Amino acid sequence: MVEWSATPLSDALERGDVLSPDCPSRLILNHVTSKWGVLTLLSLRSGTLRFSALRRKVSGVSERMLAQTLQQLEGCRLVDRRSYAEVPPRVDYTLTPLGREAADRVAALADWIESSLPFLLEPGPVAA
């Protein structure tokens, strides 16, 4: 059984765990913070979506990339996939409780980026 610790990332960074190439959290970090991972998590915050609706919401993602992203997030236990034996087949995706927590944290970062965009895109040298 894998034990889970609620150690804040800032503490983990101080210890250097996530900075180590052998740290298993790097794989999760990669899935959660990839462009399509972030956009998928943000899109599922509004509730359960079918694949086609999710693809429309995550504008610009290919079918293959969305499927891969969903598999990765499902493998990290952040997204739950439910398939129904219907014709045509129906598959729904929803955030798990851990996924909702991750999505909320990613949303805070996305909100900060959006509100800071004028400064982030400002030309010229960065002030020290």
From TrEMBL:
Domain of life, per lineage: Bacteria
SUPFAM superfamilies xrefs: Winged helix' DNA-binding domain
Protein name per UniProt: Helix-turn-helix domain-containing protein
Domain HTH hxlR-type, chain residue ranges per copy: 23-121
Keywords: DNA-binding, Transcription, Transcription regulation
A Pfam family matched in the record: HxlR
